[in-house]
UniProtKB/TrEMBL annotation:
It holds the Pfam family RF-1. It is an enzyme of class 3 (hydrolase). One of its GO terms (molecular function) is peptidyl-tRNA hydrolase activity. It comes from Flavobacterium bernardetii. The keyword rRNA processing does not apply. Keywords: Hydrolase. Residues 110-133 have a biased composition (Basic and acidic residues). This is Aminoacyl-tRNA hydrolase. It comes from the Bacteria.
Length: 133
């Protein structure tokens, strides 16, 4: 992942934010939309692209566009900073490869303890039965 190249590939669009805001809401475009084309990115290699497409498939459109929005702040610049930070955090989380699980056996002592507990439980249950003379 090459951060400098990825930064240059980000496309931004300013949109009018929805919700309450009084007279200001109809004049100011403070909501920021980040658009990133995963398929044509030069900052990611093929393995990283494939990993992103599988892990972020719910966030990527059919045209291989990753679209993120932010309208938390009234400032367009702050929203842009927030969305860039979120984008790179999302990429870092998605590109982490999980460790391969190594199968382990339970110890001999653990197996013996489990069997002893089962025998004890069975004895308790058999002690609850009515005696038949």
């Amino acid at each position: 992942m090459k951060v400098e190249i990825l930064n240059s590939e980000l496309n931004f669009k300013a949109v009018r934010s929805s919700g309450a805001g009084g007279q200001n809401v109809n004049k100011v475009s403070s909501k920021m939309v980040l658009i990133f084309d995963v398929a044509t990115s030069q900052g990611l290699d093929d393995a990283e692209k494939l990993l992103l497409q599988t892990k972020l498939k719910t966030k990527i459109s059919q045209e291989n566009l990753l679209i993120l929005t932010c309208d938390e702040d009234r400032s367009q610049l702050k929203n842009k900073r927030i969305i860039i930070k979120r984008f790179f955090e999302m990429l870092e989380k998605a590109l982490v490869k999980p460790k391969k699980r190594i199968a382990t056996k339970s110890t001999k002592g653990a197996n013996e303890r489990r069997i002893q507990e089962k025998k004890k439980a069975g004895e308790i249950k058999s002690g609850r039965k009515k005696l038949d003379f």
